[in-house]
From TrEMBL:
Keywords: Plasmid. InterPro entries: DUF7219 (IPR055643). The lineage of its organism: Bacteria, Bacillati, Cyanobacteriota, Cyanophyceae, Nostocales. This is Isopropylmalate/homocitrate/citramalate synthase. Pfam families: DUF7219.
């Protein structure tokens, strides 16, 4: 079996999607944070579904990640105007 090099392994474990929004540094950083959040949530949910994490631990980890994402949005000064229409962050 062929070994994956570090770049391929990284892109397999942490896939990134293209960004289509307004190209501002803070938006790009938040988009990266959002994608990382989604990937970590996926891992937590799969571990909980597979019985490796209890529901309580999974909830606590997801809550912590959510708070970190909200904090990053606040620190980056991302506007909430668009989010009011979609019920987002």
């Amino acid at each position: 079996m062929q070994k994956l090099n570090d770049g391929n392994k990284e892109s397999f474990l942490y896939p990134r999607s293209r960004y289509y929004g307004s190209v501002k540094p803070e938006n790009l950083v938040f988009n990266a944070n959002l994608q990382e959040f989604a990937q970590k949530i996926s891992y937590i949910v799969n571990l909980q579904t597979g019985g490796k994490l209890s529901s309580e631990v999974a909830y606590e980890r997801i809550e912590t990640l959510w708070k970190q994402l909200e904090l990053s949005k606040k620190e980056l000064g991302i506007s909430t105007e668009l989010n009011q229409h979609s019920g987002g962050l």
